[in-house]
Design brief:
By secondary structure, the chain is of the alpha+beta class. It is built from seven helices and ten strands. Helix 2 crosses helix 4 and helix 3 crosses helix 4. The termini are far apart.
């Protein structure tokens, strides 16, 4: 009788992918598993672990590697497809369809810490502070003080999971830095952010924060996730910038992505 081949020899494509071994999915984190998987795959693609035109692991591989359902994998894939990072090609699987570009962006991060490093006095006004769907919704206007004058520069919204940060709703974030509190009292260290830049129309809240600006058709908004060193979600954030803010971008082209 013919003996079956060992599983690895029969299906080498079903082996765990070492490039994903640094990621862990946590069913108890409060964040849906498909979003955790989406962020893990996104980070691997953007960091160059999977190159342009390469197939990422199959549904079966990711199901077995992370111990999750196929529906979870498919939902994560749908987000990657909608973002244009991958495309599904019949007979080849899910293929990376972008060219990785490394961006360094200034003026993102802790507003309070950045202002202090520059020798300026940061000012925060809490516009909204309430609990909604198990999260603290915190909206703040941020500015810099010059004597009695305050230049308001942005309005940021933070969504913080109360399961991760029990008691965080009791803090006065007009007087304390959110990221200082997260590091000191919850041992969560924001490391990087994945942000989408869009333009949002003026609203009554933004007009009140930034002052009347009838000639401004919209404001720059950066929204997305803030992550720690283990790629775990720290907060969801949305930051709307005053027209007075200037953003600086640096793009590093790799050898394989340099324009002709």
């Amino acid at each position: 009788m013919t003996q079956p081949s060992p599983p690895d020899a029969a299906n080498p494509g079903d082996r765990p992918d070492d490039r994903l071994s640094r990621f862990r999915l946590d069913a108890y984190s409060g964040e849906q598993l498909y979003r955790q998987l989406y962020r893990a795959l996104r980070a691997a693609i953007l960091s160059g672990d999977f190159s342009e035109g390469e197939a990422i692991p199959s549904e079966n591989q990711m199901r077995d590697q992370f111990g999750i359902a196929r529906t979870t994998v498919r939902n994560a894939m749908a987000l990657l497809v909608s973002e244009g990072l991958v495309q599904q090609v019949r007979g080849r699987g899910t293929i990376v369809s972008h060219r990785p570009i490394s961006h360094n962006i200034w003026n993102f991060g802790s507003f309070t810490e950045l202002a202090r490093r520059q020798g300026q006095r940061p000012v925060t006004k809490v516009l909204e502070h309430r609990i909604e769907n198990g999260e603290l919704l915190l909206v703040r206007a941020r500015g810099l003080a010059n004597g009695e004058t305050i230049a308001w520069l942005n309005v940021d919204t933070s969504q913080l999971d109360l399961a991760l940060y029990p008691g965080i709703e009791t803090y006065d974030f007009a007087a304390q830095s959110l990221y200082e509190v997260l590091r000191r009292d919850y041992h969560r260290h924001p490391l990087r952010s994945e942000l989408l830049l869009t333009v949002v129309p003026p609203s009554e809240r933004l007009r009140e924060a930034f002052g009347p600006a009838t000639d401004v058709p919209g404001y720059l908004c950066a929204s997305g996730d803030v992550l720690d060193a283990d790629d775990q979600l720290v907060e969801r954030t949305s930051i709307v910038y005053s027209p007075a803010v200037q953003m600086k971008f640096a793009t590093r082209w790799g050898r394989d992505t340099a324009p002709a």
